[in-house]
Amino acid sequence: MEKVKAKKHLGQHFLKDESVAQNIADTLSLEGYEDVLEIGPGMGVLTKYLLEKPINTYVIEIDTESVEYLGVHYDKLKDKIISQDFLKYDINEVFKGKQLAIIGNFPYNISTQIVFKVLEYKNQIPEFSGMFQKEVAERICEKKGSKAYGILSVLAQAFYDTEYLFTVSEHVFDPPPKVKSGVMRMRRKEDYSLPCSEKLFFTVVKTAFQQRRKTLRNSLKTLNLSDILREDEVFNLRPEQLSVAQFIELTQKIEADGV
């Protein structure tokens, strides 16, 4: 069949540079899992390099035209094409609790939602890598003290070691996006369980950054903290001044305060 036409409403920009596709595929360590799920394979420019690796490659694709194209052109994908929306899909319909890596040239309009879903499944996903809008990839990997450092940075880095790998020109896509892209990788920490309530940790981080220009004493008012706790020096800081470890320590203090 003919090539798939990129659909604007799906945020499709098809990668056409083979060397970039190869480099993205090579970000996987292939350690600790036997399966990889590629999100949004399109016409399979990345898929073909994944299929060369000693791993079971699955793809999930919402575009029915792409699903048909992949079925025609990639025999090795037989029974491994999931025609679903990743954001609404329960990966255990196929993977049944197994460990797997996730990779992709992610649609920019849903890329942050994909990261949050990966965090939901962190017990099963030791490795996650792929291409994002450059600013988003940088934000995920950013350290404290930067304006780019935020909710996504803290939550991802609480459970994963994150690494910005390389920048990709807009000219290697069809159609070209209006921004540069960046490839980053997340590898799950050996000990990724938090010494505090995970739910409370998420609440503290999100609440703090929703008013990032304010000190924590003001931004965390809605948590109804005790006056004694709010005298702690950490509450004089703004959220971007706290490292991931300090956010975890702060959550422990709030937990002990009875929130």
Automatic annotation (TrEMBL):
<keyword id="KW-0698">rRNA processing</keyword>
<protein>
    <recommendedName>
        <fullName>Ribosomal RNA small subunit methyltransferase A</fullName>
        <ecNumber>2.1.1.182</ecNumber>
    </recommendedName>
</protein>
<keyword id="KW-0694">RNA-binding</keyword>
<dbReference type="GO" id="GO:0003723">
    <property type="term" value="F:RNA binding"/>
</dbReference>
<keyword id="KW-0808">Transferase</keyword>
<feature type="binding site">
    <location>
        <position position="105"/>
    </location>
    <ligand>
        <name>S-adenosyl-L-methionine</name>
    </ligand>
</feature>
<dbReference type="InterPro" id="IPR001737">
    <property type="entry name" value="KsgA/Erm"/>
</dbReference>
<feature type="binding site">
    <location>
        <position position="85"/>
    </location>
    <ligand>
        <name>S-adenosyl-L-methionine</name>
    </ligand>
</feature>
<feature type="binding site">
    <location>
        <position position="15"/>
    </location>
    <ligand>
        <name>S-adenosyl-L-methionine</name>
    </ligand>
</feature>
<feature type="binding site">
    <location>
        <position position="40"/>
    </location>
    <ligand>
        <name>S-adenosyl-L-methionine</name>
    </ligand>
</feature>
<dbReference type="Pfam" id="PF00398">
    <property type="entry name" value="RrnaAD"/>
</dbReference>
<keyword id="KW-0949">S-adenosyl-L-methionine</keyword>
<keyword id="KW-0489">Methyltransferase</keyword>
<feature type="binding site">
    <location>
        <position position="13"/>
    </location>
    <ligand>
        <name>S-adenosyl-L-methionine</name>
    </ligand>
</feature>
<dbReference type="InterPro" id="IPR020598">
    <property type="entry name" value="rRNA_Ade_methylase_Trfase_N"/>
</dbReference>
<dbReference type="GO" id="GO:0052908">
    <property type="term" value="F:16S rRNA (adenine(1518)-N(6)/adenine(1519)-N(6))-dimethyltransferase activity"/>
</dbReference>
<dbReference type="InterPro" id="IPR029063">
    <property type="entry name" value="SAM-dependent_MTases_sf"/>
</dbReference>
<dbReference type="InterPro" id="IPR023165">
    <property type="entry name" value="rRNA_Ade_diMease-like_C"/>
</dbReference>
<keyword id="KW-0963">Cytoplasm</keyword>
<dbReference type="InterPro" id="IPR011530">
    <property type="entry name" value="rRNA_adenine_dimethylase"/>
</dbReference>
<comment type="similarity">
    <text>Belongs to the class I-like SAM-binding methyltransferase superfamily. rRNA adenine N(6)-methyltransferase family. RsmA subfamily.</text>
</comment>
<comment type="function">
    <text>Specifically dimethylates two adjacent adenosines (A1518 and A1519) in the loop of a conserved hairpin near the 3'-end of 16S rRNA in the 30S particle. May play a critical role in biogenesis of 30S subunits.</text>
</comment>
<feature type="domain" description="Ribosomal RNA adenine methylase transferase N-terminal">
    <location>
        <begin position="20"/>
        <end position="190"/>
    </location>
</feature>
<dbReference type="GO" id="GO:0005829">
    <property type="term" value="C:cytosol"/>
</dbReference>
<feature type="binding site">
    <location>
        <position position="61"/>
    </location>
    <ligand>
        <name>S-adenosyl-L-methionine</name>
    </ligand>
</feature>
